[in-house]
Amino acid sequence: MDNIRDKIISGFAWEASTKIVIQVFSWVSTIWVARMLTPDDYGIIGISGIYTGIFLMFSGMGLGPAVVNKDDVTDDELHSIFWTGLAFSLLCYGALYLLSPVIADYYQIDGLNEVIRVAGVIVILSMLTTIPHALILRQMDFKTSAVISFSVNFILMISTLGFALAGYGYWSLVWSVIISQVYGILANFYKTKYIPGKPTSVKTLLEFYRYGFHIMTSGLVNYISTLWGPIYTGHFLGQTATGNFQMANILASMPLTKIGEIFNQIVFPAISRIKNDLEQSKSLFLKMHSHLLLITLPIFSGLALVAEDIIPLLLGEKWISIIVPVQILCVLCIMRISAQIVPKILEGIGKPKANVHYQVILSISMATSMLLGVQWGLNWMLVAWTVSFPIAYIYLFKVLCSSLDITVAELWRSVSASIFSTLIMVASVLIFKQAVNMLSDSMWLSLATSIVVGATSYFLCYYLLNKQHVKEIVALVKGFRS
Question: Is the dihedral of CA 459, 462, 463, 467 positive or negative?
């Protein structure tokens, strides 16, 4: 266990340090690019991404996580998985290529056919990294994984910005992804020295495919869930509303994707190695979940509070219409981030089927509620999504607590300090923000005051409520430095 604990600490050190840097550059790059592109540009990319993403889910077949989770894997099995996966990804891209004109005709958007066909290459590129990346995660070599991820994201941001400055418009968001993916393939193969060999009979892979089928199914249903927003906005509200939804979702979900990715990157390989020890698995989840909410609750709440200042200041007046959508999505993301690592925990302990059930419940509730809400516009669609989310959320935690023998009291104790501190922070910011606005009309002053007051009140309150946890975090940071 000590070896796994050391690797987890090392993983957080590398993942957190690289993600912090990437997050800063990502915000700058996103804001800079957003000022050069238009909602229509993001709209066409969002619509093309719907169909590219679906085929991307199919092509992976969930084989990467299956390799990570299995106790023992032979070279013959790795080779067979690689070649069968590559063949299937080629079939998926071929199908997407043939369907792209039909999709473009349905939306009646110029250039959509070409965008789908070019962006669809990612379906093949993604599969090529499956085996080498899985080998890195099996060894819990989080340093290598973090460095490669950092490099891929840095290349993505630089190339996106470069193409946008060169006047490529929405193509900036396509070619940059392809370039970064190609680099990721080369880096993963170079670090693992993996060379695909001659495949053996696929009959030996039944266990992988059985596990992978559940991973693929849950991933596919989850992806479909993310499509309800662009589909409904694109059909009922138009291309501009779709672009507004995409940008609002990007901004509000950045902490969810960036910070949540750190935890998911670590928790799945770690829980896969200790899945036969119930107490260690339970302890790992409670600590991970507690740390996750400690970090993200004030971020989402703070972003909702300062959205009316930060969006016009950083993105410009043309994006003012996304202020309310961002605020609504921040409230939703508080629940989403709490549920972020639970599917990975269930998959890690060998219960991927439970995650499938969760994703189905989530998708049905989203489809129904968002369809009702979109009739009154984008904001009401997002409100309906937020109201319906607890249906799936409650089911997910009921399964988790049953699987790891976690009581409601234990779960509450692990997060109560973060929740109370966030409520104090919100109240403090609202009071000071109102006072500042009475004295000055400066958005910069309002923004700066909100950040200082929010951060101070949150961390002071948390220290008073949970000094022991603060000491543990200090010890963890010292572990990072060592």
Answer: negative
